[in-house]
Amino acid sequence: MMPVSIATLIARPTLAEWYRRNRERSRTLFDLIDPDVYYTRPIALRNPIVFYEGHLPAFSVISFLKRGLGHAGVEPRYETLFARGIDPDSEQEAVPRSGAGTIWPTRQEILDYGVRVDAAILQALEQASFDLAGTTHPAMSRGEAIFTALEHEAMHQETLLYMWRRLPYAHKRKPQGVHYELDAAPPPNRRVEVPAGHATLGARRDRIPFGWDNEFGELIVPVRAFDIDAHSVTNAEYLQFIGDGGYERRELWDDASWEWREGEKVSYPAFWVPESDGLRSGSALAQETWGWRGMFEDIPLPPAWPVYVSQAEASAYARWLGRRLPTEAEFHRAAYGTPAGSESPHPWGSADPAPHDGNFDFTSWEPVPAGARPQGVSAWGVHDLVGNGWEWTDTEFGPFPGFEPMPSYPEYSAEFFDGRHVVLKGASPATARELIRPSFRNWFRTNYPYVYAKFRTVSGANRQAGQ
Predict the structure, then answer these.
(1) Of 171, 199, 221, which closes a domain?
(2) In terms of domains, do 208 and 129 share one?
(3) In a domain? residue 437
């Protein structure tokens, strides 16, 4: 891959259009919910909804206008109140770092602030002088601060959607034209052999237009031969695990995961809805007794959709089969490797992501059947590695050699290199197309059950240390 020149990074009309598209989508998402839940927490470990509508414009001011350009803020009070809030340790810590507690502006005040921010951001994108060498403001090197603001908003839109899913249906407005792909049967369970080779993790800074700090630097690692599920694990397959008492079998869970399962009384996926409390015993269950917790309504459990679970649950399922979750390197090898020994920028090749390649970029409110986007298959014949749900790995989230905190958002990654987060790869239905690149890394705690995350298993042997 050839180096990317700085001159090609900054097409001002394109950046302005991207910003407008982000803001329009964010407004649409907030308009889906009723005002009476605006100050509630759909997920206890996240901030109240009000926080996020203020956080998105405030963050763009902080990262781009202030750190990137050295400009003054738009409203300092809001840029303190809404500065940052992510992945707290407890419900008590799920408050703004400003310590402002429950004193919040009205939605109209936040919308008015957003209008002022939008005007300032767009004026800067169109007219400001950019120090792309980062001489005066390191956060602006190669346009970093711009892309930080743009990708940050897109990432939070996915957070909003899995938060909204926890709201009662009566408090959401179902848009016209919502439909689901329900008719497919689960694909046959088969495995694909991937021969030994190498995987390129991360990226060189001069080879991609933008990356978050945890994507750098480039690391090429050997990968032993392994086999991997051609399809992500489906609801129908996971139902067999539940029917075999998987949630009650202590030997399938590591200590931390078992403590979480016991403490939270977890006995089925957070995206499933049981039709009666009597179904929670772990006995053999029929598919008809379960529903899927949709965005706007309960849906009879679609057997061919991928199951969305925490990494703790995915790992227990893999142990039940005598297998394991893939490493980050194995995911890369399965997704981007080729029989010729080269690597592709996407599982389907070099073409930019398109709707026929996978279920991503907000084209669907829900998953689609496993294997329903066959044009996105990898060179080895593995489906849905990018799209239809993030993919859990068993790789601890940590830095690559040469890691440096990014000037536009120095706290983004480093404080999560704590041994409690693992890497996810790929993309979900709510992942913007701009985030789809091989080096992009998502991460969550192993017991976080709300993210749109699926999984697949690999052969139990041959895991290499450090992968």
Answers:
(1) 171
(2) no
(3) yes
One domain, residues 304 and 406: yes
CA–CA separation, 376 and 393 (whole Å):
20
Give the number of C-alpha atoms closer than 13 A to the C-alpha of residue 249, restricted to the C-beta side.
Answer: 16
DSSP symbol at 68:
I
Q: Are residues 373 and 450 in the same domain?
A: yes
CB within 8 Å of 136: residues ≥ 6 apart: 70
Is the domain of 51 the same as that of 151? yes
List the structure tokens of 114: 């957003």
Residue 308 lies in a domain: yes
Domain boundaries, position 454: 183-467
Out of 145, 171, 197, pick the residue that ends a domain. Answer: 171
127: left (phi > 0), else alpha (psi -120 to 50), else beta? alpha
Same domain, 67 and 194: no
* Res 45: pLDDT: 82
Are residues 388 and 373 in contact, defined by beta-carbon separation less than 8 angstroms? yes
Residue 245 lies in a domain: yes
Q: Is the peptide bond before 217 cis (omega within 30 degrees of 0)?
A: yes
One domain for residues 198 and 337: yes
Residue 176 lies in a domain: no
**Length of the chain in residues, anyone?**
467
HSE of 260 in the Cβ direction (CA atoms, 13 Å)?
15
The pairing of beta strand 197-201 with beta strand 453-454: unpaired
Q: Please give the helix or strand (H or E) that residue 117 lies within, else none.
A: helix 107-127
pTM higher than the cut 0.90: yes
**3-state SS, one letter per residue, for 148-161:** HHHHHHHHHHHHHH
Quick one: average pLDDT of 449-461?
Answer: 92
Q: What is the pLDDT of residues 330-377, one digit of tens each?
A: 999 999 999 999 999 999 999 999 999 999 999 999 999 999 999 999
Which long-range contacts (C-beta less than 8 Å, at least 24 apart) are formed by 447-450?
447/256, 447/257, 447/260, 447/264, 447/310, 447/311, 447/312, 448/310, 448/311, 449/266, 449/269, 449/270, 449/309, 449/310, 449/313, 450/43, 450/162, 450/163, 450/165, 450/166, 450/270
Angle between helices 311-320 and 255-264 (to 10 degrees): 120
The predicted-structure confidence for 370-413, as pLDDT tens digits, reads as follows 999 999 999 999 999 999 999 999 999 999 999 999 999 999 99
Specify the CATH number for the domain of residue 42.
1.20.120
Q: Which of 239, 224, 234, 201 is nearest to 397 (CA)?
A: 201
What phi and psi, each to the nearest 5 degrees, are found at residue 382? -100, 130
Which stretches within 244-362 are classed as H helix?
255-264, 311-320, 328-336
